[in-house]
Design goal:
Chain lengths: 65, 304
């Protein structure tokens, strides 16, 4: 079987694969916790980011300003 | 007998989109009597839509632009990843369908256009390459490369910017307008939200968390007559009757067009179960939700 055929077969199978609800429910809470943790770490890491210096139009200014 | 809506009523979508668009543009208050005040800082809050901060009216940050800025500054984007994961796990790609300001623009522009060509499904992977590529290109070039050269969302930024400051060179203005024209032509040809389907890196990021989303599309096969109306109206080109498949969980933006169009109300957008039922708990749900039944099987309840 040529690679293209087997690849498309794999993609079709993956695409149509049902994702069990149980797995999703369990992982969801874990991911939610990780997300909150990441936001907390991000906010703890510093307040000098993005907005103060370059959140405005810096990249657009570079287009001809 | 037609079942009533059990989930979110799709008629609320347009008002929600309009309000969201307005909220994203609250930076209009930056315009004081003596002129535009660029020095007034914008907030560091991240929004869940492509909302270019180059826009004079924007006050929320685009996660993609911020990610690139973090990469350029050699900082790990904990904050952005956390926010994207938080949005992904809670509302998932419903953010694309209900809250993204660019989504409203696309919906208005593409209203009524009929697809003439369906690209192969592998093209949906392009958005994941865009997502990876924007990080790599930002680190290699030290530029917010994606927003400058590839982003459709820049149109929302560059035009208001040009209108207020007139400092953008015409070359760049026409470049972005050309890119805009390309995407619009493509979406007219392909139908629906071609940008969200094939190119949007934010959609790609949200879809990864969106697999675990607390909002989902439910399908009740008992009432389905397989008329395929849902497939025809889906702007993301997916089959809503296969609600639990990986493809649908990744791609569905919960725009509820299929819900609105379904003559038998087999579809609904609503909350996903938050907890697994206990072993002793009796399953009282009589109607299986979420799985497609092959055509030809006997329907439990005949369609009337």
């Amino acid at each position: 079987m040529d690679i293209r055929k087997s690849w498309s077969k794999l993609v079709t199978r993956l695409r149509g694969a049902p994702v069990p609800d149980d797995l999703i429910i369990r992982l969801r809470w874990f991911l939610l916790f990780m997300a909150i943790l990441a936001v907390y770490i991000g906010l703890q890491m510093g307040d000098d980011w993005y907005v103060k210096d370059s959140a405005t139009y810096d990249w657009a200014r570079g287009l001809g300003y | 007998m037609v079942q009533p809506f059990k989930g979110i009523n799709p008629v609320f979508r347009l008002p929600v989109q309009v309000v969201s668009f307005g909220v994203h543009r609250l930076g209009i208050f930056r315009k004081l009597p003596e002129g535009w005040h660029a020095e007034i800082p914008r907030t560091s809050a991240v929004t869940c839509g492509l909302n270019c901060q180059a826009c004079e009216l924007a006050w929320l940050g685009c996660p993609m632009g911020m990610t690139q800025q973090y990469v350029i500054d050699n900082r790990f984007p904990f904050y952005i990843i956390g926010i994207l994961l938080l949005i992904g796990v809670t509302i998932g790609r419903a953010a694309c369908g209900w809250l993204c300001p660019l989504g409203l623009v696309l919906d208005v522009i593409n209203k009524g256009c009929k697809p003439k060509y369906t690209p192969p499904d592998w093209m949906r992977l392009i958005k994941y390459f865009y997502l990876g590529g924007l990080v790599v290109l930002a680190s290699v070039t030290s530029l917010i490369f994606f927003c400058r050269y590839l982003c459709f969302g820049a149109v929302l930024g560059i035009i208001p910017y040009w209108l207020t400051w007139q400092t953008v060179s015409y070359t760049w203005l026409f470049y972005h307008l050309g890119a805009f024209a390309f995407y619009i032509t493509f979406s007219f040809y392909v139908g629906g939200r071609a940008w969200c389907r094939y190119f949007c890196p934010l959609g790609a990021a949200l879809s990864l968390g969106g697999v675990f989303s607390m909002v989902r599309l439910n399908y009740n096969w008992v009432w389905c007559t397989h008329c395929d109306m849902c497939k025809k109206v889906c702007p993301m080109g997916i089959d809503p009757t296969k609600a639990t498949t990986l493809m649908n969980r990744l791609e569905c933006i919960k725009c509820a067009r299929c819900v609105k169009k379904c003559p038998n109300k087999c579809l609904s957008v609503g909350p996903a179960p938050l907890f697994t039922p206990g072993k002793d708990e009796k399953v009282t749900r009589r109607v299986p939700v979420g799985d497609a039944r092959p055509v030809g099987e006997i329907q439990a309840e005949p369609h009337k």
